[in-house]
Design brief:
Length: 187
């Protein structure tokens, strides 16, 4: 099985995440995309994170009925901080018959050289990069196992959703209907 790993805080998950996961699943020829809810991103401040369990439960609810898209709390059970290299090593051991493909935004690709054991990840895993607004990089010098996939990105962010909730504004088109009450309650 070919499984795309789409990691993030999902604070909260939104329709942009889901749309992107759907597109990458098709474009990259993946059987599934696992949305890996991260308990802690080593490069981000954690102060505004909702609890791990609530973010995971909202992701599960948001993905109900989405073929080939699965919310995972796998990293919750790994040592923190949750470096991608550690996650990949554990996944390889736990799922030896699966091929894992890392799905990352152009903003993360620009910082990839700073990732823990980046060279080892590059040697051992396929990486699919999707461009993000404001993340320019030279596509002519990519390693052989790194592919850029042009995707349609929705102009939505978790930060924008949290700010709208604080201001009492609508988030109707931003999050799946099933999680809207929880997003309003907890953010």
């Amino acid at each position: 099985m070919k499984i795309g790993l789409f990691g993030g805080s999902f604070n909260p998950i939104h329709v942009g995440h889901i749309s992107l996961a759907r597109q990458l699943r098709k474009l990259a020829g993946l059987d599934e995309v696992w949305l890996m809810v991260s308990p802690q991103n080593p490069l981000k401040a954690q102060s505004s994170l909702l609890s791990d369990q609530l973010r995971f439960e909202m992701a599960q609810m948001a993905l109900q009925g989405e073929e080939g898209l699965v919310a995972k709390d796998y990293e919750f059970h790994l040592p923190k901080p949750s470096y991608t290299w550690n996650t990949l090593q554990h996944l390889k051991a736990d799922y030896p018959d699966c091929e894992f493909v890392l799905l990352i935004g152009g903003d993360n690709w620009a910082l990839f050289h700073r990732w823990y054991k980046a060279d080892d990840i590059l040697r051992n895993f396929r990486i699919v990069v999707y461009p993000r607004k404001g993340s320019d990089f030279d596509t002519s010098v990519l390693p052989a196992n790194v592919t850029v996939m042009e995707t349609e990105l929705l102009n939505i962010s978790s930060t924008m959703i949290r700010e709208r909730v604080r201001r009492g504004e609508s988030i109707k088109e931003c999050v799946p209907t099933v999680i809207e009450p929880l997003v309003r309650k907890y953010y």
